[in-house]
């Protein structure tokens, strides 16, 4: 198994992002529409935070109500901003970080996603799913 490959070989580059002015309802729609669990929050391609679907679940009834009912969710979402809910101290890696380095960070920090940043700009995101798929291909 080669673990010296750069993370750029397994990261996603088609990144869905939010900005701090977006609404939490918009975030939930993006999570569900794109079947993702993490969305970087950016300001002009510079990462300022990370919002996870779990963050939304902590403040809402996102999975507890019928999908056709949005009134409860909207009410709860209007009480918070993305800035209040997102993780702000985001750990990032460069695109030339090795897959092994990323695996160590994900295992030690118990994160499920890492933004990939080059020269201060968001260029990708790598998730535990990306890592597992890579490992499965090696077997």
Automatic annotation (TrEMBL):
It comes from Winogradskyella thalassocola. CDD domains: CBS_pair_AcuB_like. Pfam families: CBS. Residues 11-67, 86-139 form the CBS domain. InterPro entries: CBS_dom, CBS_dom_sf, Diverse_CBS-Domain. This is CBS domain-containing protein. PROSITE patterns: CBS. Keywords: CBS domain.
């Amino acid at each position: 198994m080669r673990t010296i490959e750069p993370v750029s070989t397994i990261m996603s580059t088609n990144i869905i992002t939010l900005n701090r002015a977006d609404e939490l309802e918009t975030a939930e729609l993006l999570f569900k529409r794109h079947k993702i669990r993490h969305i970087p929050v950016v300001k002009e391609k510079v990462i300022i935070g990370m919002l996870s679907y779990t963050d939304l679940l902590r403040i809402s009834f996102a999975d507890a109500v019928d999908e056709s009912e949005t009134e409860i969710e909207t009410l709860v979402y209007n009480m918070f901003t993305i800035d209040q809910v997102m993780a702000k101290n985001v750990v990032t890696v460069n695109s030339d970080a090795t897959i092994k380095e990323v695996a160590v960070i994900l295992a030690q920090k118990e994160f499920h996603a890492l933004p990939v940043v080059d020269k201060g700009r968001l260029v990708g995101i790598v998730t535990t799913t990306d890592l597992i798929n890579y490992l499965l291909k090696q077997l």
